[in-house]
Write a structure and sequence with these properties.
The chain has helices spanning 2-33, 36-50, 53-71, 75-108, 118-121, 124-152. It contains six helices and no strands. Helix content is 87%, strand content 0%. It has one domain (2-152).
Length: 153
Amino acid sequence: MRALVIPLVLLANGLAAGVLVGTQLGGWPLLASLPPARYVQAHAFFATRYDPFMPICFVGTVLGDLVLALGTEPAPARWAFAAAVPLVLAAVVVSVTRNVPVNRWIRALDPDALPSDFAAVDPRRHWGVWNRARCVLAVAALLANALGVGLLL
């Protein structure tokens, strides 16, 4: 069982962390530099592609890590897999409470008819901070999972 779960956990966690690192390195700087109408258009484009993908990766990582945390020996490897669980869950909480609501709101906007107060409610600064937080959490979980695998070698 472990021989199947470990690669799936590393794949799911690695894909999630990779997407978030890619967003930090390229997507976020682009979004932050765009004028409001182009930002809304580009953000909506990105959000529709990542929102269905990321939850699958996060849930797969949590479920796999729980299996590994409950059934892996030696104990240090088990602890490493267990340490990844709250990190990924924290990334999920940030996603659901901070990033997803902004993504939904942005997708509902018409870039050609932005609200008159858009400059005051522009979510970029806050969205960027929370996106960076979930990126750090996902990468930290990947490091914990890599440590767990290393301890099994």
